[in-house]
């Protein structure tokens, strides 16, 4: 599975300083303290560079505006963002190319009842487990 340093890199968190996330507990602590709002921009730009509104699927627009004044996400918002970053990193690992990883995430998939993997991941934690399971099957050569 994807290293926590890779998730931190996608989120834009330096892994080797007092605020880093080089361990699972470091990442958990950083999320609990509040990820920077810039992490939403960073993840949205990587996953959906041509969709300026994608960040509002991660944090609703009105909430996003409030978070910009505090400069921090809540722990719940940070957890959702880390879930997305984890899946993005795993998709990159499997496909080896950003465009192909993006194509996988934004195209309907029969094992998800024809839902798009990104929509399933955004929905809840269960979706955040289903999509990596499919990616694991693709990576290790079992039916997906």
Task: Describe the protein's architecture and organization.
36% of the residues are buried. Helix content is 65%, strand content 0%. The protein has one domain. The longest helix is centred in the middle third of the chain and has 21 residues, at 75-95. It is mostly helical and 144 residues long. It contains nine helices and no strands. The chain is globular and about 45 Å long.
Number of domains: 1
Largest beta-sheet details: none
Distance between the termini: 17 Å
Average pLDDT, rounded to a whole number, is 90
> In angstroms, what is the radius of gyration?
15 Å
In short:
With 144 residues, the protein is mainly α. The chain has helices spanning 4-11, 24-33, 38-47, 55-58, 61-70, 75-95, 98-105, 117-123, 125-140. The chain is 65% helix and 0% strand.
List keywords for this structure.
144 residues; mainly alpha; 9 helices; 65% helix
Strands, helices and their partners?
Layout: H1 4-11, H2 24-33, H3 38-47, H4 55-58, H5 61-70, H6 75-95, H7 98-105, H8 117-123, H9 125-140
């Amino acid at each position: 599975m994807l290293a926590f340093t890779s998730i931190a890199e996608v989120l834009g968190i330096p892994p080797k300083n007092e605020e880093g996330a080089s361990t699972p507990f470091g990442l958990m602590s950083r999320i609990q303290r509040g990820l920077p709002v810039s992490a939403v921009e960073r993840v949205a730009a990587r996953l959906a560079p041509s969709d300026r509104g994608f960040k509002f699927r991660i944090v609703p627009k009105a909430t996003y505006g409030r978070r910009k004044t505090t400069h921090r996400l809540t722990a719940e918002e940070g957890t959702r963002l880390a879930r997305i970053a984890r899946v993005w990193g795993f998709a990159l690992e499997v496909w080896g190319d950003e465009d192909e990883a993006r194509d996988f995430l934004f195209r309907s998939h029969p094992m998800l009842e024809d839902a798009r993997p990104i929509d399933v991941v955004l929905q809840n934690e269960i979706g955040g487990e289903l999509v990596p399971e499919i990616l694991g099957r693709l990576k290790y050569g079992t039916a997906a």
